[in-house]
Write a structure and sequence with these properties.
By secondary structure, the protein is an all-alpha fold. It has helices at 7-16, 18-25, 44-56, 68-77, 90-97, 106-119, 126-141, 172-177, 188-200, 205-220, 225-239, 249-262, 266-278, 285-288, 302-314, 321-338; strands at residues 2-6, 33-37.
């Protein structure tokens, strides 16, 4: 981004930015028009315009969920820490504004998160990103709230947007998954951070697994091969963090079929096969009839079944293992007959 600074603008920017103070302070004499070039300025011209409005308005610019991360990134880039001649610190003001995040609507949280994602890796404040993730997860985990569209008359610490009708409320099952569609815009790196935070905050693992399966299925549609591969590997890694009892055998096998077409690394394939094996007692004969690897003389991938059985046996030790083992034994009998 190229910036032409006249003398008046130089003085204003120097009063708020330590970086501009260093740049202009080293100049000898008066330079009426100065050309400054910034590479990768956060938010480009829009980010600079917001920052300039803050300076011209003497630090009184309204900081909202729609501009807080952009202003924070610009402030860090220009070292607007209040060490100039002005007492206003844009860095401090944006961080202080985040204290009211519990009063943001669901739509505002999503808007701020999208802006933060667009600015990565330019954003310097992992604390701000973590703060919005914590608040977002808090809304998701609230048992008394079916969706952000539910209107509440009490004055609790959470205020929710009522931007759609009450008709959006559905069955108890959908009340646990109302947020799935809203978070599909997140890239795989933020999904990784989101899910790890969910696990640390002890969000229900079965719900997390359903979201990961939904995210994987939705984002892989129309995606390039390299992107599909990355999404699949990250999802497999995240699923491995969950309790085995929360996993669905059917979903794991569906992810496995996608993974085979992508030829993901052996490390992730082994992890996925281990997860599939742990749920083998839930499988049906159709799941096991996987085609043999490319250019092999046999029709079915028998070695896959052997690896799954081995993974299942390594999961032994629970009180219910004997009854689960009987199911696997019957399944293998059926498999042998079919093969």
């Amino acid at each position: 981004m190229t910036l032409l600074c006249h003398t008046y603008l130089q003085k204003i920017l120097m009063s708020f930015s330590s970086l501009f103070s260093k740049l202009f302070g080293d100049l000898k004499g008066t330079v009426r028009n100065l050309k400054v070039i910034f590479n990768e300025f956060p938010g480009g011209a829009k980010g600079f315009e917001l920052m300039a409005m803050f300076c011209y308005d003497n630090g009184r610019t309204m900081i909202t969920p729609s501009n807080i991360f952009l202003l924070n990134c610009a402030a860090h880039f220009l070292e607007m820490d209040g060490n100039g001649s002005s007492r206003h610190s844009l860095i401090d003001q944006t961080e202080k504004s985040l204290e009211g995040i519990n009063f943001w609507t669901w739509s505002e949280l999503l808007e701020a998160l999208k802006q933060c994602q667009d600015l990565l890796p330019a954003t310097k404040s992992s604390v701000m990103l973590q703060c919005i993730l914590d608040c977002l997860i808090g809304r998701i985990a609230l048992p008394s709230i079916a969706s952000p569209h539910t209107c509440s008359s009490d004055s609790s610490s959470f205020q929710f947007s009522c931007d759609t009708s009450i008709d959006s409320l559905k069955s108890s099952s959908s009340q646990l998954t109302w947020w799935f569609e809203d978070l599909l815009f997140l890239n795989v790196d933020l999904i990784d951070k989101l899910i790890k935070t969910m696990v640390s905050l002890k969000v229900n693992h079965a719900t997390i697994y359903k979201f990961l399966f939904y995210y994987h299925k939705s984002r892989c549609i129309g995606a390039a091969t390299a992107e599909k591969c990355k999404i699949t590997e990250v999802v497999i890694n995240l699923i491995s963090l969950l309790d085995r009892s929360s996993l669905s055998c059917k979903g794991l096998f569906e992810i496995y079929r996608v993974a085979l077409g992508l030829r993901i690394s052996k490390f992730y394939r082994n992890n996925l096969e281990s997860l599939m094996g742990s749920q083998l007692d839930q499988a049906t004969i159709d799941y096991l009839l996987a085609p043999s690897p490319h250019r092999r003389a046999y029709y079915y991938d028998v070695n896959l079944v052997l690896r799954l059985v081995q993974a299942f046996l390594l999961e032994g030790g629970s009180l219910s293992f004997t009854s689960r083992l009987k199911k696997v034994t019957n399944l293998l009998d059926s498999y042998l007959v079919e093969v």
